[in-house]
Specification:
alpha+beta; Bit1; 4-stranded mixed sheet; two-stranded antiparallel sheet; 3 helices; about 25% helix; about 30% strand; globular
Length: about 160
């Protein structure tokens, strides 16, 4: 099976919040592995304009692509590597919108419970975000794998 066929029917799902909260308090729920998010006294709500959301989607999708390339290279150890030995994988991407950091953490908890690997992009721009997750993306998965997890989220409008 070629690399392209390996991902046939799979999707990379990206979730981007319209508003992020920073700093955010994360505590573990006693008796489970789920995280609960809360506010500090100084927690700020930062609206992410559409252009910034688009870039956050691109950043986290790039992390997935980077991972796929490194994985392919690791399987080629000892072989001559060039542009044709590490194929480009055309994997459909679906961008979903969530309201805020709290909903993003909820989605992350659901993905953890389903054992679906995901990547987080943390924006660390000083004076604005400091250090906050501004988007997440799943590994390539089938739509069935995320049924009941991501299907309730609307598509990102990308105005």
């Amino acid at each position: 099976m070629g690399a392209t066929e390996k991902f046939l029917g799979m999707r990379v799902y990206v979730v981007v919040p319209g508003t992020v909260q920073t700093p955010i308090k994360i505590v573990m729920n006693s008796g489970s592995d789920r995280q609960i998010a809360g506010r500090f006294e100084n927690t700020r709500d930062i609206v992410q304009p559409e252009g910034r959301q688009a870039m956050q989607i691109g950043h986290v999708r790039g992390m997935v692509e980077h991972h796929l390339i490194l994985t392919a290279i690791s399987h080629l150890r000892g072989k001559k590597i060039n542009a044709t030995t590490v194929p480009y994988n055309a994997i459909t991407g679906i961008a979903k919108a969530c309201r805020d950091s709290f909903e993003l953490i909820h989605v992350r908890n659901l993905l953890d419970a389903a054992n679906i690997r995901y990547f987080e992009f943390r924006d660390t721009q000083e004076g604005l975000y400091e250090d906050v997750v501004t988007a997440l993306a799943t590994e390539p998965v089938t739509p069935f794998a995320v049924a009941g997890i991501l299907d309730y989220l609307p598509l990102w409008p990308g105005k």
